[in-house]
Amino acid sequence: MSRTIATAFIAAMIAVPATAQTAATSSLAVPSEEWAHRWQSKDLEAVLALYTDDAVFVNADGSRVTGKPALRKFFASVLKQYSAKPSLHSVDNASSGNLGYDWGDYTEIVSPVAKRSNPIRTGGTYLVILRRVSGHWLIAEQMWTGSTPVPIGR
């Protein structure tokens, strides 16, 4: 009987840190989820607030944009050309110290604003590298793959 109680106690002690770790780890998906919500709302300043000042964005076509001023210009151009409905599904995330990551799959419907064209349906994989700044996880690097390219005029 005492062996059963001891086994149950040890199992309970092991489960508590695992639960706490799961809750902490899932917070790493929040910046990605917030990004999708703010991007769909076309709220440029709210989107930029999710990034570190030296952030790097790698688009699905492999092009790279570095730093908030360049991100502001690039994102403003994209948001002027398209409306988007992204849907993200975090697959895995973890952290060590002040660095973390979140990666997953996404689907997105991208609709041209100026031209009355058919929406573009795309999807793929995303990866964000996060840095904890003043207690908040911010996007330091972000990259996307895409099944259907979305042409972006710069």
Q: Could you explain the architecture of this structure?
A:
The protein is an alpha+beta fold and 154 residues long. The protein has one domain: Nuclear Transport Factor 2, Chain: A, CATH 3.10.450. The protein is 36% helix and 41% strand. The chain contains four helices and six strands. The protein has a six-stranded mixed beta sheet with strand order 2-1-6-5-4-3, with helices on one face. Strand 3 and strand 4 form a beta hairpin. It is globular and about 45 Å long. The protein starts with a helix and ends in a 10-residue tail after the last strand. The N terminus is likely disordered.
Tally of domains: 1
Rg, please? 19 Å
CATH topology: Nuclear Transport Factor 2, Chain: A
> Major sheet, described briefly?
6 strands, mixed
Q: What number is the mean pLDDT?
A: 84
Helix-residue proportion: 25-40%
SSE string: HHHEEHEEEE
Q: Please, how many helices?
A: 4
| N-C termini distance | 72 Å
Second-tier CATH architecture: Roll
How much of the sequence lies in strands comes to 35-45%
Given helix and strand content, the structural type is alpha+beta
- State the shape: globular
